Amino acid sequence: MLERSSNPNIRSLNNTKHEDNSGLNITIPQVTVISGENHNSEGNLGGSFPFKTLTFSEKISKFLDSSTMIITLNISTIYSLFGDDIKILGFSKSADDVFSSLFIVCLFIFFFDIILSFIYKRPYRWSFYFWLDLIATLSLVPSVSWIMENALGLSNVKDSKSLESAGKASDAGRLSTKIFTIVNMVRLVRIVKLYQNVKTALKKIEIKNAVKEGLHENTMVSESKVGKKMTEVIMKKVIIVVLALLCIMPMFESNFYFNNPTSWDFGLDELYDFLNQDGFELTEEKYWLFHENDLRPILHLSYKTGDGISHTVSSNDTKYYDLRYNEIYYTSSGNLISIFDLRYDVRLTSLLNIFRTIFICIVLTLGALFFSKDSEELVIKPIEKMIEKVKIIAKNPIAAAEIQELSSKENQANSEKKKCFGLCKSKSKNVDYETKLLENTILKIGVLLALGFGEAGSQIIGNNVETGGDVDPMANGNKIVGIYGFCDIRNFTDTTEELQEGVMMFVNEIAQIVHGLVDKYLGAANKNIGDAFLLVWKFQKDEAIIDENDKIIRNPKSRRAFYLPDLTLISFLKILAKVNKDPTILKYRTNQKLLIRMPNYEVKMGFGLHLGWSIEGAIGSQFKIDASYLSPNVNVASALEGSTKIYGVPLLISGILYNTFSYPIQDYCRHIDTVIIKGNSKPLELYTSDCDFSDFVANKMCDRSKGYFRDKRKMLIEILEKGQATTEDLYKESKEIKMMRESFSEEFYEAFNKGMEGYISGMWKSSRKKFRKALKIRNKDGPSLALISFMSETEFIAPVHWKGSRYLG
């Protein structure tokens, strides 16, 4: 009997085990609802979720891929690309030390990233991108002025005003210009790293936006190994081609090998010819004035006359020793020396370098995109879609049908978007490439697997797909908590003999209704056994568990755990209503063969519902396997369905399940007996939900497609999860349920319930009177007739050992 605790949060039913003569252990589980404060914050009853500890190598890899590291590398990359040019455009020589220090910081960051990636990222070791990063990083070394000055032999020049140092600096400037022409090209390789980081960042943003929109990150199509390899190969070729062109093209210019003479050189030679002659002063003045206001003004002119006296003319605005070695031009003729300001050329070159860098960024990016676009559209993306769908099917084979439905809608939407808008004469034809055919085939196979194995077989399919190799049906099952429904078609043998080949259509038409409505109300079809169907409503692991004492505990934080039992009853009531009003089923009432054999023939069904644990898994061998649920509790559901004939009702519900119904839903049930099922010593209360279909008439044909039921299922989950409606509302708003219960009066229930009280307490003669009173109101009430028949076996005198329950064979 049900024991109601003083704690409103706890309802329990005793749990016992019994071993019958066959050795079969049958457990009637105890149902317990525990208040939320007894559970941890994660909703994992009786324990906590295990957290995976990252290894040191995984932590380093995670750090290298972190947003902080990527942003740091991107900033360093941008500085390395534009730092030299910005320094020349906007800063004087005095700021060189600061820029050199920043370049050293960039070198440290890049080498830090390269070394850690080399050690902790195996695919990176000795790869194309390793060498690319290494060369690009080494190309930063010339940007450090201290290193470059040492390399060019300027480190020992202490007197910045000496003409010897100016000559060395000018020669170094010419040499460094050619060096930097090549080095800067190599440095542009850093653009690839920048492109990859930006691409990764955009992917993360896309995932975050998808999660905000309610999509799961795993539903997004991830890049496949084939896609990564092809993208890498294309990127390599683009980089090599672009850099080769950039490096080789300057070599076809004459000024790459020698400097063309200028007026600085010609003029100084002419001035040297006039040295120590009349008119030299005038020629010197013209030479100076000609170059003084030029874009590249003269800064210094010095010479010695024949008497050994040195003469020097210098600019008052800028001193040559205040400029960088690549910003001056030194030329000499004999003992004449002139120095010119090349800042205009150097700054123009720096500005052009910035635009060239940006242009090459665009070329590399567009080149990589356009070269890979066709291969991605025709090969990579279809393969990635197939791989993603295989992964989804592996995790949840039941989702195959939903994916197929979504793909159909997506293709339809894409075809509607492709309109000519008057610019073309005819619609373009969609070409079904082999990849598309293969994708559709995978989906169809997934749908067939889902249909063939059902929800119980989802893990079998998933494990075999994920692990690869040969198919292995031999695996341990999973213990789950669920509600098991067994339904049976009455008079099936006679119907089969009369319908012959048509019996398949007969069964499938009924199955369409049964499976569709069960699916709508969050259940799943498992077995089709000729005239019977096994239907299951599974609790998820975080919704209900069975403890060491075989007690079923529901998680109070889960809405679904509490409304799911209520939906099992409404689904069966809806099935019964549909069978008695659907034109597809009602047509068999006029089938002459059936009427001759069974006058007044109607399609009738029996249902049994029970709650408990079971083992979900595969049964069979390498030749044939079936996904099913094994448990005494499944057998109880089957036994309840079989007992509906004894009580003359279409539906029997176990007391275990009844106790999990919400209180308003319990009002739709009637306690009709307490029995002990064969092989079980624990009394089991039996309930039914009364139905009368005499007033039902045929309705119009309605949509019974899978998509229709799935849409209804999604809507139902949404309103129940958001609390927009309760299961009580579903019952009250159902016209069918209201109609099938209208003929059951309060007077009838009062008489029957009093009869049940006398029956349970052993006062059978008093009970007989009450049951007969109930029969006067409803003369065909099956439970009243069944109990009167049972009590009449002992002339309405309860046995001495009577304890309120009887054995049900």
Automatic annotation (TrEMBL):
Keyword Ion transport among record annotations: no
Keyword flag Transmembrane helix: yes
Annotated keywords: Membrane, Transmembrane, Transmembrane helix
TM region(s), chain numbering: 98-120, 126-148, 238-258, 351-371
Name of the protein described by the UniProt record: Guanylate cyclase domain-containing protein
Chain intervals with Polar residues compositional bias: 1-15
Protein origin, superkingdom: Eukaryota
GO aspect biological process, one term: intracellular signal transduction
Source species of the chain: Stentor coeruleus
A Pfam family annotated for this UniProt entry: Guanylate_cyc
Region spans: Disordered: 1-23
Domain Guanylate cyclase: from-to ranges: 483-641
